[in-house]
Write a structure and sequence with these properties.
Elements: H1 2-19, E1 50-54, E2 59-62, H2 65-75, E3 79-86, E4 89-95, E5 100-103, E6 115-118, H3 135-141
Antiparallel strand pairs: 1-2, 1-3, 3-4, 5-6
Length: about 140
């Protein structure tokens, strides 16, 4: 009987520990319904969008990567992960460190910064390859 009580206590501790862990999972954007936390526009273009997961696991969604960048600069939000939707894979949120970014009027973003994220640069015309930058370089540039 005593071991059954210890077993239940052990399971309870494990479940409590798991339940208290912050969320680290991306939450898909519901295009046409979700609203940007920064500009308050409805997130509607499936080739653009971004998501920030705070250090406490809260998911914050954005209409475009430039909205997320602007909020990061203005509010110094503590985060654990950043994602953006890629132009070449609409509706897909991918971690920013795995992407290359392009600022070009040929890729008109919802907020007018002409910023697009790309996961497969082979799908881009070679004329853009020299202009692609990493997330770190993008943060320094804007």
């Amino acid at each position: 009987m005593k071991s059954k009580g210890l077993y239940i206590l052990g399971i309870s501790v494990v479940l409590f520990t798991v339940a208290c862990q912050p969320n680290t999972d991306v939450v898909p954007i519901d295009f046409g319904k979700d609203q940007c936390a920064y500009c308050k526009m409805t997130i509607s273009n499936p080739k653009f969008g971004a998501e920030l997961i705070t250090d406490k696991g809260r998911v914050i969604k954005y209409d475009a990567a430039e909205c997320m960048i602007n909020q990061l600069r203005e509010d110094s939000i503590a985060y654990q992960k950043l994602y953006t939707v890629t132009y070449d894979q609409p509706k897909q949120l991918i971690a920013v460190e795995n992407l290359r970014f392009l600022i070009s009027p040929d890729f008109r973003s919802p907020m007018g910064a002409n910023l697009s994220a790309h996961s497969d640069i082979t799908l881009l015309d070679k004329k853009y390859h020299q202009s692609l930058i990493s997330w770190e370089a993008l943060m320094d540039a804007l």
